[in-house]
Amino acid sequence: MPKERKFRRPLHYFTHNADLSLGDILSWGYLEDLQVYAIRREQDVQYFDFLSDIKTLPWWDVEELVQTKNIKQFYHGLDVKQHDQHLWNYIKLQAKNRFPDWKPQYPKQDIKIDPVTKEKDITLNIKPPRCLKNMPLRAMEQDFYEDF
User: Fold this and answer.
1) Does the pTM exceed 0.85?
2) Residues in contact with 118: Cβ distance below 8 Å, sequence separation at least 6, in sequence order
């Protein structure tokens, strides 16, 4: 099991409200028959066309993704492009060194100061990741029964 990393996230990402968060990353991998990358979370599954679309995730999700076990180890066949294998190794190296060159999404801080109490109210604005809007479907077998 990966170690606990929730302390790095904004507080509303702890909740199980689907409007605010999809939850922790449980597993991820490349689905050969659908030709997509899938990230399984507590509340949902996110599908990405390209490995480079992971860059649109918040930085704490990319760090968690690097530490989470892949459902199939990445070196498994010709269906995964060689470029993606090199890119994944680069992403792992960048996450290990705190992203010096390859920059995932860092949230913007909106700071509002209450004029009466002079307290700061910090809101983190995060753009939604560039994932597929519709779930890809597997091809259904057509000739499964001869009398049908």
Assistant:
1) no
2) none
